[in-house]
Each structure stands twice: as structure tokens, then as C-alpha cells.
Amino acid sequence: MILRAVLALILPFASPVLAEGFLLQPPIDCDLSGEGCYIQQYMDRDPGPGVTDYSCAGLSYDGHKGTDFAVPTLARMRAGVRVIASASGVVAGVRDGMPDTGFSPETEALIEGRECGNGVLVRHDDGWETQYCHMRQGSVTVSNGQRVTQGEMLGLVGQSGRAQFPHVHLSVRKDGAKIDPFDPDGTLTCATPGDSTLWADAPAYQPGGLIDVGLAAQVPEYSQVKAGTAARIALAADAPAVVVYGFLFGAQKGDILRLSIEGPEGTVIAQDVEIQRRQAQAFRAVGKTRRRGHWAVGIYDGVATLLRDGTVIDRMQTKAVVQ
Q1: Kind and range of the H or E element at 110?
Q2: Reported pTM
Q3: Of 181, 192, 184, whose CA–CA distance to 11 is shortest?
Q4: Do 237 and 174 fall into the same domain?
Q5: What's the CA gap between 75 and 210, in Å, rounded?
Q6: Do residues 173 and 131 make contact, with C-beta atoms less than 8 angstroms apart?
Q7: Domain range spanning residue 229?
Q8: Measured in whole angstroms, how far is the alpha carbon of residue 42 from the centre of its chain?
Q9: Within 10 Å of residue 314's Cβ, how many Cβ atoms?
């Protein structure tokens, strides 16, 4: 069982500013309040080579023109998370059939010109459009010309097209111009909450955080962590090591990932790991090898805490049993 506490720097939003009555709900049928799903990246508001989101933090990348609503692992993606219409409208474009292999040097040529992957375009009144990208192969449930209502299922979250993690990328446009739904007035004020919003009930801003935490008998492969298959199992008393790992998003240079394990006989290990460079996603692990005898039988608690400038911004913990 994983317990989570999303702590400082998660701030409420102001009341929505109406945009001709056009208001959105998140395009993913999943809790964004600190359990399960999260916003991996916001729209880049810097017109030059720099990167800034609407709050003047760095949870974006250069040229990113939408908002990425992510699920934590490939396992969660395969279990099925619904993509839903952010507003009522008429379907104006559909693509399906692309594999969920994501973006890599090997797939780059295959997805050229189809970077959105499997997706749906919905047109709304008064020149508004929403586009939903990277949906799961074979999951799209709507067709061209179909009228959809806000909250209606369009398909499932996937990793098709130019996607390096499972998510739905939401683009919002007005008369063809790209709009940031978190601050649509076009004036970057660096306010959190922003001075305007297209959201009927805006998701809270989180500048980074933890995706997962786990205990294992060895340092897992990164591919296992991203897939959600890294060990969170009953550890054996004769395991060669006890390891705790943290999987995080929005990592900034200088962030501290504090990792610890508490066992039946006290602290097994407690260590701070400094993040050396900005990363969209990353994982770090620390552990202790078994030198003699066996691990004490009982419950082991693994804790991952993410700190930025000395402030805790996220914390997750898990348990495993040695028997």
C-alpha cells in the first residue's frame, strides 16, 4: 500500500474568468488531486528558446503548446483510463490504429507528420477547438460528425505518436490561435493562481512531485519503474539487499530526493540525493546490502520525500514485509 501526502506549493485557483461561456473540465477521468494521475507539463509561455509555464516555473519544455495529463505507469495505462471531452462539441477529426510504442530514435521516422498519435479533434461554438493526442491504439470511441457532450468518453489514455510517457495531451485553440487554458488572456503575469482561467474547476498547480515509491531486493531497471512492474513485494529474509526508490516528475537542478527505509530494528538507510539537472521524469534509489545473517522479520517502511529550496513539495511511502 502506498500512502501519499502532497504538501507545500500546491495552491488553489481563483474563480474562473468566463470566456464567452466556454469552460473546460480536465480531459482525463482520473483524480488529479494527489492520487493517481497528474499534470506532467504545461504550455510553454516563453516565445524564445527559454521555458516557462504560466506561473513562471519550468514545468514545460521549449515549444510545448498544450497540457499533458499523465497516468503514473504503463501498467495503469493498460488497465484503462478514460479520455473525456473537456467541453461539448462536434467531432471534426479522428485518428486511430497507431501503436503505443511512444517516441524514440527507432520510431521517429514512422510517426513523422503524425506526432499527435491516435487522437480526436472537437470543434465548439465561437471558434473554439480542443484536441486530444496520444490515445491508446484501438480505443477511440467516436467518429467524425458525432456530437459529444462534456465528460463523454472519447477513448483511453495511451502512448502513441510523439509521447515518451502515457498521457493525453490537450490543446486548446480559439480561431486557430493556441490558448493556455490556465491563463487564457495572453498576458503572462506569473500569478499562481492565474488572473484568468478556462477551467470550471481548475486543477491545483503542482511544480513537480512523486509518481511512485517502492521497495525491492535490488535496484530496479528504469524500464521496470516506468512500466509499474518494479518490485513492491514481500521481501525475503535472505534478500541480497533492501532498496527504496522514488520515481518523480518535474525534477529541477538542486532538488533533493530524501529516501529512507525503516525496519523492525530501526533505520536501515536514510540518504539525501541531489538532482543534478532538470528532467521531465527521473528515478533514484538507495539501499543497503546484507552483509551477514538475515534481515529482521517484520514490516519495512520506504519513504520518498521531494524537497525544493528546502521546502517539501511531495512525499510518498510504502510498506513491504520480510518473512
Answers
A1: helix 108-111
A2: 0.88
A3: 192
A4: no
A5: 17
A6: yes
A7: 209-322
A8: 11
A9: 29
Cell numbers at residue 234, please? 514481500
Task: In whole angstroms, give the CA distance from residue 182 to residue 195.
Answer: 9
Q: E strands along 96-190, which residues?
A: 118-123, 128-135, 147-148, 153-156, 167-174, 177-179
Per DSSP, the residues of 255-277 read -EEEEEEEETTEEEEEEEEE--S
Dihedral through CA 48, CA 54, CA 60, CA 61, nearest 10? -10
**Do strands 167-174 and 128-135 pair parallel, antiparallel, or not at all (unpaired)?**
antiparallel
CATH of the domain at 55: 2.70.70.10
Nearest to 259 by CA among 239, 282, 236: 282
Q: Is residue 12 part of a domain?
A: no
| Number of domains making up the chain | 2
- CA-angle at 263, arms to 266 and 308, nearest 5°: 85
- Number of CB atoms found within 10 A of residue 264's CB: 12
Show pLDDT as tens, one digit a residue, over the chain (323 residues). 554 544 433 333 334 444 557 999 999 999 887 567 999 999 999 988 989 999 988 899 999 999 999 999 999 999 999 999 999 999 999 999 999 998 888 888 889 999 999 999 999 999 999 999 999 999 999 999 999 999 999 999 999 999 999 999 999 999 999 999 999 987 887 766 667 899 999 898 888 999 999 999 999 999 999 998 886 556 899 999 999 999 999 999 999 999 999 999 999 999 999 999 999 999 999 999 998 889 999 999 999 999 999 999 999 999 999 98
Whole-angstrom distance, CA of residue 67 vs CA of residue 292: 51
Whether residue 156 sits in one domain with residue 36:
yes
Residues in the chain: 323
151 and 222 both lie in a single domain: no
In one-letter notation, the amino acid at residue 60 is S
Q: State whether 172 and 35 are in the same domain.
A: yes
The position carrying cell 509555464 is 53
